[in-house]
């Protein structure tokens, strides 16, 4: 088989290069490993968690960590470790779905306004200015108030309130890529706008998007936790970390573990996502290359 | 320059219209009847209905929105459905606390973020770089309400050096400002670091070194000013974010800010306060950003030239 | 006082990168006489800038590192100086102009300030006097002194490069290093700037190390030329001699690659192949893979210095008598495969 | 003097003149005709007086603004006002103010107007004498005249302040209004001409501290002297401290889980009883309130007048519950949902019940609905089961039963179970209108028996009121309805 | 070099204008230029940075929409082609870009870049495509093992070969070479120049060769057009432009080029000042501000591009006959 065969179709790219650079960043790899572990436990929560996330034991309320309950029990006598493990599922889901929503909507808008400029750009960007000017947590609260709480609505609310961030980033990178010669080169061989956007511009604007996305997952998880704190979160007994933390805050004096462990779970996850995001930023940005 | 500022100020108008429209629309579709909330659970249906009619809540969306706009343009945001006070007054009462907290938070973030960012950029990949980034990242990773509670445990209960909640004296400001400041600090550190790294690579820094300037002068005089633009941008954005985003911190520390008022107002369907509040926050945010843009011009003569 | 102003002996500079260690400068020897202008010519990546930065001791570290060598300037080894002492030399006795006038001035400071800064730093002048001197320098390079308070973006490329020259000459340095000062400029502007540099050099008596890849510029400005390839100087002579009788196969190849303005050549005769990978230099003579005269020996033994005469040095085994020389001066196959 | 304000109090304090009270909610308005929320009432209680006086244990005495009253007929009451009572603005209290107050209350459609909706008009005899005419006999009328919402306002002051009266209240109470920093604090100062004599403290600062834990910490660190509504978890911690005095008293609040009695399967009394039996309310209450509550056996807290304390309670009996369900045609249970708002205690109950119902085969989802739509939607009967509480603020059974169980009160008015029973309807009207206490008692006891049997609710708990003070605070006596009287309270 | 003048031009440009609206006003990047290119020849275009060379190339190919004028390619009007037919036009007219680093999509493999035109025009079967890519790669002297490589793994010279291969993929008849060698080192530059020349012979191509380097242009072109500030100031054969330049700007340009010969003494004309902004071009002759031979009339009226002798057109009053009228 001719060597060109593979290359003709597979748009393998410098991801290998990025990965190589990322691998040399020990902090980022640590972050990635932590995220990997969390995703793994989330996927196999049923197998890993010692108890069910809703299993109550009303005689063992807020027990401190012990051999049966490694991280103790919560205000309903449920195993905190198990709830954290199941909660990873919810929190990560909220984070990723919310970012996806923001990214797809914001990305499309940003790409269009960056690519076509002019009036489309004006209209889109004014709309983004509007969304940006409204504090995102208030926007999320208002949306949840309007359409009700629950996992799906929380994800949508957090997603919507983050749209302008992605619209701006995508627009900025589309504009800078649009000006590059290879776009003109593609046009010179007859490529359509659609092809140019999808095959050339978007793949090349992935770097800042991925970085922002990684950090955005962290922000979304925190936002959802914040909504839970206000009481607008996800229905119980679904173990969402923010809700766990917030319901444990009343016990903070005598049974600090109830709020501390979910809090740590959030801190560790956000921390890892941030490490990874920073690492990706360095790895993806050739200018930062040493 | 003045023309530019004027144009930007005029541009605020459509943005504010948009903001009011978005908020009005969301609130319009939010279930919960303010008339009923106003009259209490026990009011007979007929009275509720009468009040609804009187408040114009049964009018079509366009008319309600039009009326709101018309009144808002005359500076009348209506009266709070909850307290019966003019919504504008309610907001104005709370605004100083919000500004104070946001400013203090940004100050904390800047005082932490910029020096750390600079030092870790000039010593990229050093131990200091690593540790300060970890430190900054921990700040951003902690949920505000959790951090707040932890700080209260430490400073109010164990050390007994700071009041646990409330508003008024500088001592009251310390913990709330630290809580929100540390979460912004990471962003600012990050931006400072990458912006400085970018600038340090520039030819003109090499030129400055080639003149024989000391490293300190090179960094402070030549690099920092150039690196400042993206930093100022994030500082502005953070300030805007803190204006309305400090809800949780305000709740933890019983801080009488607009954010908490807004959350209560949303939940109590206090439409005039919600609308007025979001407009106020959005306007402040936009003005801060305008301010940032003007600041650019003072930092960077190239930008100033564009505005001419 | 010797008439040699700058002498570099056996300089080795490396960069450690993720791809491996780049041997940017390798066993480089170079001499520059007082009042002389020396052209340092080579293709991209040959190590010209690194050499210049080594003299200034501005090689970015990490990743760069001056491994071994001596850089004698006015009787002192610069590499032995403490950083504080070196700072006092930089911008004062040695100064430097960089390639890209668009980026080498600080965009947020006025040009006046940027010139004055160097003057106040190195000379015992009051701020007023320094500013006066800055105005004089601007006038000297043909910029109206009224523009001291303008910012770089308000100048064209050529004017910015003149500002760079004014800044470099403001402390009347012994040695001026110019790293491709006109590469980014248009020919007509380049002509203006080169003209100015020639004039000022004569006026100030400054020695010049002019880095370029343009042999035309060298012919116009320099007294002598050093040709660099893969980190070392492969040929060094006075300009007329080198242009008339280039000896090193690489130097000859260079001349053959240039389309001529006044001769008609139907086809160019380029050097085959590419610059070697800097992390993986060929063994023996670094040029042997591209050399039309190369024999097996070239890939195993490094050529030594040969003085063809006191003014013409070359590093090639042809002149050590180990390798047969070219029958015809030019050979080299045109279209390179792969 | 009003120079010193809330902001100047130091972090640690034991200031004899100023009493600092930590309160969870921000008052909405100090105009009694605008709101009837607890935080406002707690402040109004200090600023205003009512015609009748109610002690902290809910005994109504003749010690109010009315020196005496006389029942002319079941619908006519003649009152004599105390003479020489002055409002904070210096004006003397007259019948005119009383008349004005009640008329305004009706006109403005005040949230608490229902308390006195039996009142037809106030007839002024002279400055100190007036007659109240009712449109129908109303048993709890005199009790209601002790409710802070019926406080007497000063006509001049109200008319002068107009819409802004809520921030410029003028009463006859022991404290006059000084300053209100929205969201932060509210300052009152001693009214020296108070008709009962000057109050014990010179100044009261109410601080709004919304978070339970933070309020407790503020008391512990001495930033405040007295806190209301201590969280159950915090109460345990505080009670353990020497320098803190805890006050655990029975309250008027009933917690319940209502069934939509017009919707299948809850239209079947057996299902409702089965659920009552299936729930281990005792255990759940223990968890939800950390023990600071009494398990409910009927709809009224024992502190409420005419509460039936003889009801046996359902107890926890899974087998019987299953049997009843089978009898009702649901041997394998069914699927349903529990609605609640985001009140943590209710959510906790819901979570526990969800698990306990599983044991009898009932699968219940939990749906958290925001307060405003929660009231709306439960009023429309969209729910299956819902968690709610009720405070019999007046301490009278009428308040505690009528709107919750009378069939005329479906929906918004209070009966969100849509359960109706003719006999109960009749008994509740009897209790409401019969001026004879003994007759009222008989009617209410019977009504409660029927309600217990018919089980439109799962009866959950009567919450204890938890308050705490620093040890140096003297004279604090919790008010059963939560409108604590601070007249006699001071820092020693 | 024996251009058949009797042949019809393959490309004929008339009064081409390309203006850009900018914040500071209308930028006249290309301002009313006309020229012809004949089959098989190379027209060189030289001029200083910003004089409109690239813009000319781009508007001829309709990569930007010209503001005015006509471009006729093989007898067809290009400026009014409907969108769909532009695609077909692209099969015949291609471009090689200046910057071999920026003109290749960094996320596509070499083979994918070269095959992109096939994909767009849906040409060939899969296997044929692969073969065709191999063919093109060997045509431009790229080893087939580089097919799977990515642009960043290649040096400038090889990248430029990829750019050439892409431009040739659709078998064009006409190629705009926009400074294809200016980013390259001399030894590599010579290799690419040779390649471009060889391909012209083998594939019968017509070139418009843009460069700021007169010696390169001279080496490769049959005729040369000199541009200044959006206008052509002189156009003639490669020979004449060096032996008998008529326009003062051309003369200055020639004299400014440093010649790699010691003692190559020439009369140097050093122009004062910078190229003026194309937003506010000088009145009259665009070169009048810097022209060493400026006359009063130059500041009043602009000289037309006038045929002073066969094959030689100059826009300068000095080169015109006395009877010549300003336009
Ligand atoms: N900061 C750096 N990090 C890593 N490698 C470097 C660095 N600077 C230069 N190099 C490498 O060192 C070698 C010599 O570079 P140098 O810049 O000295 O060459 P040059 O002759 O000035 O080239 P040019 O003509 O492109 O300016 C090159 O291979 C280059 O890639
Ligand atoms: N898309 C555009 N929008 C605005 N101005 C443009 C645009 N493209 C080119 N210009 C301007 O038009 C003028 C001519 O540009 P062009 O790129 O054609 O010059 P050039 O001769 O190719 O220069 P160079 O040698 O630098 O490539 C310049 O002033 C340039 O800034
Ligand atoms: Mg260099
Ligand atoms: Mg160009």
Supply database-style keywords.
B: 308 residues, mainly alpha, 14 helices, flat, E: 327 residues, alpha/beta, eight-stranded mixed sheet, binds adenosine-5'-triphosphate, binds magnesium ion
Amount of helix of chain A: over 70%
From the alpha carbons, calculate the radius of gyration of chain B and give it in angstroms: 24 Å
What is the H/E order of chain B? HHHHHHHHHHHHHH
Could you give a short account of the major beta sheet of chain B? none
CATH topology of chain B: MetI-like fold
CATH class of chain B: Mainly Alpha
Low-confidence stretches of chain B: none
The class by helix and strand makeup of chain B works out as mainly alpha
What is the level-2 CATH architecture name of chain A?
A: Orthogonal Bundle
Bound molecules: adenosine-5'-triphosphate, magnesium ion
The overall number of domains of chain A is 1
Sequence of secondary-structure elements of chain A = HHHHHHHHHHHHHH
What is the strand content of chain B?
under 5%
Transmembrane segments (chain A): 30-53, 96-118, 130-156, 209-234, 255-276
Keywords (chain A): Cell membrane, Membrane, Transmembrane, Transmembrane helix, Transport
Subcellular location (chain A): Cell membrane
Pfam families (chain A): BPD_transp_1, OppC_N
Task: Please tell me about this protein's structure.
The complex is a heteropentamer of chains A (290), B (308), C (338), D (492) and E (327). Chain A has 290 residues and is mainly α. Chain A has a single domain (74-284), classed as MetI-like (MetI-like fold, Orthogonal Bundle). Helix content of chain A is 72%, strand content 0%. Chain B has one domain (88-306): MetI-like (MetI-like fold). Chain B contains 14 helices and no strands. The termini of chain B are close together. The model of chain B has no long low-confidence stretch (mean pLDDT 85). With 327 residues, chain E is of the alpha/beta class. Chain E has a domain at 250-320. In chain E, the strands form two sheets. An eight-stranded mixed sheet of chain E has the order 6-7-8-3-9-10-12-11, sandwiched between helices. In chain E, strands 2-1-4-5 form a four-stranded antiparallel sheet. In chain E, helix 3 crosses helix 4 (126-139), helix 3 (110-121) runs parallel beside helix 5 and helix 5 (156-168) runs parallel beside helix 6 (186-203). Chains in contact: A-B, A-C, A-D, A-E, B-C, B-D, C-E. At the A-B interface, helix 6, helix 7, helix 12, helix 13 and helix 14 of A face helix 1, helix 6, helix 7, helix 8 and helix 10 of B. Bound molecules: adenosine-5'-triphosphate (2 copies) and magnesium ion (2 copies). One magnesium ion binds next to helix 1 of chain E. Chain B: It is a multi-pass membrane protein.
């Amino acid at each position: 088989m001719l060597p060109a065969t593979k290359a003709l179709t597979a748009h393998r790219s410098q991801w290998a290069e990025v990965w190589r650079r990322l691998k040399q960043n020990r902090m980022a790899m640590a972050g990635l490993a932590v995220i990997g572990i969390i995703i793994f436990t989330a996927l196999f929560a049923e197998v890993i968690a010692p108890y069910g996330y809703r299993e109550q034991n009303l005689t063992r309320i807020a027990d401190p960590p012990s051999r049966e309950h490694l991280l103790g029990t919560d205000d309903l006598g449920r195993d905190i470790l198990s709830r954290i493990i199941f909660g990873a599922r919810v929190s990560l889901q909220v984070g990723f779905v919310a970012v996806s929503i923001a990214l797809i909507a914001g990305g499309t808008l940003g790409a269009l306004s960056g690519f076509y400029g002019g009036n489309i750009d004006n209209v889109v960007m004014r709309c983004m200015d509007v969304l940006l000017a409204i504090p995102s947590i208030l926007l999320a609260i208002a949306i949840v108030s309007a359409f009700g709480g629950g996992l799906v609505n929380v994800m949508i609310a957090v997603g919507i309130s983050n749209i302008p961030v992605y619209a701006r980033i995508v627009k900025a990178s589309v504009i800078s890529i649009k000006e590059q010669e290879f776009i003109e080169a593609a046009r010179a061989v007859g490529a359509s706008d659609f092809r140019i956007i999808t095959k050339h511009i978007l793949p090349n604007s992935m770097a800042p998007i991925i970085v922002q996305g990684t950090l955005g997952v962290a922000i979304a998880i925190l936002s959802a936790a914040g909504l839970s704190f206000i009481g607008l979160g996800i229905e119980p007994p679904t173990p969402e970390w923010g809700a766990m933390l917030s319901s444990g805050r009343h016990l903070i004096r005598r049974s600090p573990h109830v709020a501390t462990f979910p809090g740590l779970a959030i801190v560790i996850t956000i921390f890892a996502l941030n490490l990874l995001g920073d690492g990706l930023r360095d790895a993806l940005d050739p200018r930062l290359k040493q | 320059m003045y023309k530019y500022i004027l144009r930007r100020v005029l541009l605020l108008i459509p943005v504010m219209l948009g903001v009011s429209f978005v908020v009005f629309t969301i609130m319009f579709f939010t279930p919960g009847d303010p008339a009923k909330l106003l009259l209490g659970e026990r009011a007979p249906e007929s009275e509720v209905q009468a009040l609804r009619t009187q408040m114009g809540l049964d009018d079509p969306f366009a008319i309600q929105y039009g009326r709101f706009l018309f009144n808002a343009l005359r500076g009348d945001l209506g009266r709070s459905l909850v307290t019966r006070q003019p919504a504008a007054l309610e907001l104005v009462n709370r605004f100083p606390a919000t500004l104070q907290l946001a400013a203090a938070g940004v100050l904390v973030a800047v005082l932490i973020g910029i020096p750390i960012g600079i030092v870790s950029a000039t010593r990229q990949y050093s131990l200091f770089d690593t540790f300060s980034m970890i430190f900054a990242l921990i700040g951003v990773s902690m949920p505000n309400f959790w951090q707040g509670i932890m700080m209260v445990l430490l400073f109010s209960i164990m050390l007994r050096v700071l009041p646990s909640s409330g508003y008024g004296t500088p001592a009251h400001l310390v913990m709330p400002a630290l809580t929100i400041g540390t979460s912004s600090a990471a962003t600012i550190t990050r931006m400072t670091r990458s912006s400085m790294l970018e600038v340090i690579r520039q030819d003109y820094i090499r030129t400055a070194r080639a003149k024989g300037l000391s490293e300190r002068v090179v960094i402070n005089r030549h690099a920092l000013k150039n690196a400042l633009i993206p930093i100022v941008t994030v500082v502005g954005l953070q300030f805007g974010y803190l204006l309305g985003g400090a809800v949780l911190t305000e709740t933890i520390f019983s801080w009488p800010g607009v954010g908490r008022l807004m959350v209560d107002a949303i939940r109590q369907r206090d439409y005039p306060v919600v609308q007025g509040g979001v407009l106020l926050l959005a306007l402040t945010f936009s003005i801060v950003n305008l301010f940032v843009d003007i600041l650019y011009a003072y930092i960077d003569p190239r930008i100033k030239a564009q505005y001419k | 006082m010797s008439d040699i102003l700058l002498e570099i002996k056996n300089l080795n500079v490396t960069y450690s990168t993720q791809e491996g260690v780049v041997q940017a400068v390798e066993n480089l020897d170079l001499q520059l006489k007082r009042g002389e202008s020396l052209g340092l010519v080579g293709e991209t990546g040959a190590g010209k800038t690194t050499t210049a930065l080594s003299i200034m001791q501005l090689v970015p570290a990490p990743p760069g590192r001056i491994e071994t060598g001596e850089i004698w300037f006015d009787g002192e080894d610069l590499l032995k100086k403490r950083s504080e002492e070196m700072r006092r030399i930089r911008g004062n006795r040695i100064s430097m102009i960089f390639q890209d006038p668009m980026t080498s001035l600080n965009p947020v400071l006025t040009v006046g300030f940027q010139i004055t800064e160097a003057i106040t730093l190195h000379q015992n002048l009051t701020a007023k006097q320094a500013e006066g001197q800055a105005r004089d320098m601007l006038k000297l390079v043909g910029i109206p002194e009224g523009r001291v308070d303008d910012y770089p973006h308000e100048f064209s490329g050529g004017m910015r490069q003149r500002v760079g020259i004014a800044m470099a000459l403001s402390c009347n340095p012994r040695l001026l290093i110019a790293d491709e000062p006109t590469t980014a400029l248009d020919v007509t502007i380049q002509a203006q700037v080169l003209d100015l540099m020639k004039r000022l050099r004569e006026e100030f008596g400054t020695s010049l190390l002019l880095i370029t890849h343009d042999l035309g510029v060298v012919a116009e400005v320099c007294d002598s030329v050093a040709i660099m390839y893969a980190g070392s100087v492969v040929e060094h002579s006075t300009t007329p001699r080198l242009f008339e009788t280039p000896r090193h196969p690489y130097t000859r190849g260079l001349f053959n690659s240039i389309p001529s303005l006044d001769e008609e050549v139907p086809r160019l005769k380029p050097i085959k192949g590419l610059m070697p990978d800097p992390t993986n230099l060929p063994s023996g003579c670094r040029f042997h893979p591209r050399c039309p005269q190369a024999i097996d020996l070239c890939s195993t033994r490094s050529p030594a210095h040969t003085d063809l005469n006191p003014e013409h040095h070359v590093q090639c085994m042809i002149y050590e008598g180990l390798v047969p020389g070219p029958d015809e001066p030019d050979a080299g196959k045109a279209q390179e495969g792969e | 003097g009003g120079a010193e304000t809330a902001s100047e109090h130091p972090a640690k304090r034991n200031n004899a003149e100023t009493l600092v009270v930590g309160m969870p909610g921000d008052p909405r308005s100090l105009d009694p005709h605008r709101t009837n929320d607890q935080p406002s009432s707690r402040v109004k209680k200090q600023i205003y007086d009512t015609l009748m006086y109610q002690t902290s244990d809910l005994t109504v005495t003749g010690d109010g603004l009315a020196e005496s009253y006389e029942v002319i007929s079941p619908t006519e009451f003649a009152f004599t006002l105390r003479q020489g009572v002055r409002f904070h603005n210096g004006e003397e209290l007259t019948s005119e103010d009383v008349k004005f107050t009640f008329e305004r209350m009706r006109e403005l459609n005040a949230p608490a107007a229902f308390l006195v909706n039996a009142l037809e008009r106030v007839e002024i005899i002279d400055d100190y004498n007036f007659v109240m005419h009712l449109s129908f006999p109303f048993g709890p009328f005199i009790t209601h005249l002790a409710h802070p919402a019926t406080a007497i306002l000063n006509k001049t002051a109200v008319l002068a302040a107009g819409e802004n009266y809520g921030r410029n209240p003028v009463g006859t109470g022991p404290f006059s209004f000084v300053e209100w920093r929205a969201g932060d604090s509210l300052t009152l100062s001693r009214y020296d001409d108070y008709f009962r004599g000057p109050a014990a403290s010179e100044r009261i600062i109410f601080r709004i501290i919304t978070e339970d834990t933070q309020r407790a910490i503020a008391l512990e660190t001495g930033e405040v002297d007295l806190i209301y509504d201590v969280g159950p978890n915090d109460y345990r911690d505080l009670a353990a401290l020497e320098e803190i005095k805890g006050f655990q008293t029975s309250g008027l609040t009933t917690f319940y889980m209502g069934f939509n009695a017009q919707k299948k399967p809850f239209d079947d009394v057996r299902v409702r009883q089965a659920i009552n039996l299936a729930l281990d309310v005792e255990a759940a209450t223990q968890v939800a309130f950390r023990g600071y509550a009494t398990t409910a056996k009927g709809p009224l807290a024992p502190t409420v007048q005419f509460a039936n304390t003889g009801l046996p309670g359902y107890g926890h009996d899974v087998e019987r519950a299953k049997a009843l369900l089978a009898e009702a045609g649901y041997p394998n249970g069914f699927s349903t949902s529990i609605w609640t708002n985001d009140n943590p205690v209710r959510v906790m109950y819901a979570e526990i019940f969800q698990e306990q119902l599983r044991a009898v085969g009932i699968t219940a989802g939990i749906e958290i609905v925001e307060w405003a739509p929660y009231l709306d939607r439960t009023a429309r009967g969209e729910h299956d089961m819902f968690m709610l509480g009720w405070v019999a603020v007046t301490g009278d059974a009428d308040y505690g039963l009528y709107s919750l169980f009378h069939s005329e009160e479906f929906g918004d008015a209070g009966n969100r179970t849509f359960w109706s029973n003719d006999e109960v309807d009749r008994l509740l009207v009897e209790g409401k209108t019969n001026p004879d206490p003994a007759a009222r008692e008989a009617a209410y006891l019977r009504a409660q028996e029927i309600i217990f049997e018919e089980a439109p609710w799962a009866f959950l708990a009567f919450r204890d009121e938890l308050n705490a003070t620093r040890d140096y605070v003297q004279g604090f006596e919790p008010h059963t309805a939560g409108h604590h009287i601070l007249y006699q309270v001071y820092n020693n | 070099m024996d251009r058949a003048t009797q042949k019809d031009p393959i490309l004929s440009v008339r009064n081409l204008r390309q203006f850009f609206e900018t914040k500071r006003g209308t930028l006249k990047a290309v301002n009313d230029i006309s020229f012809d290119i004949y089959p098989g020849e190379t027209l060189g275009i030289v001029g200083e940075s910003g004089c409109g060379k690239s813009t000319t190339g781009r508007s001829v190919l309709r990569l930007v929409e010209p503001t005015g004028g006509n471009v006729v390619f093989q007898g067809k009007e290009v400026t009014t082609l409907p969108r769909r037919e532009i695609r077909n036009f692209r099969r015949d007219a291609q471009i090689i870009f200046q910057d071999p680093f920026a003109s290749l999509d960094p996320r596509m493999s070499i083979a994918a870049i070269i095959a992109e035109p096939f994909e767009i025009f849906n040409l060939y079967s899969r296997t044929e495509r692969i073969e065709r890519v191999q063919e093109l790669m060997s045509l431009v002297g790229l080893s087939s093992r580089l097919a799977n490589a990515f642009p960043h793994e290649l040096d400038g010279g090889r990248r430029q070969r990829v750019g050439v291969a892409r431009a040739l993929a659709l078998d064009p008849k006409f190629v705009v070479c926009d400074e294809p060698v200016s980013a390259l080192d001399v030894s590599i530059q010579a290799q690419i120049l040779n390649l471009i020349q060889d391909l012209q012979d083998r594939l019968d191509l017509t070139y418009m060769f843009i460069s700021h380097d007169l010696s390169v242009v001279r080496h490769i072109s049959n005729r040369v057009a000199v541009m200044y500030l959006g206008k052509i100031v002189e156009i003639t054969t490669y020979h004449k432009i060096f032996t008998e330049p008529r326009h003062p700007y051309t003369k200055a340009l020639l004299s400014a080029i440093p010649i790699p010969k010691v003692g190559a003494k020439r009369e140097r004309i050093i122009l004062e000042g910078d190229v003026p902004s194309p937003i506010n071009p000088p009145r009259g002759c665009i070169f009048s501000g810097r022209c060493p031979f400026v006359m009063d009339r130059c500041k009043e009226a602009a000289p037309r591009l006038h045929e002073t002798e066969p094959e030689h057109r100059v826009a300068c009053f000095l080169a015109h006959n006395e009877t010549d009228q300003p336009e």
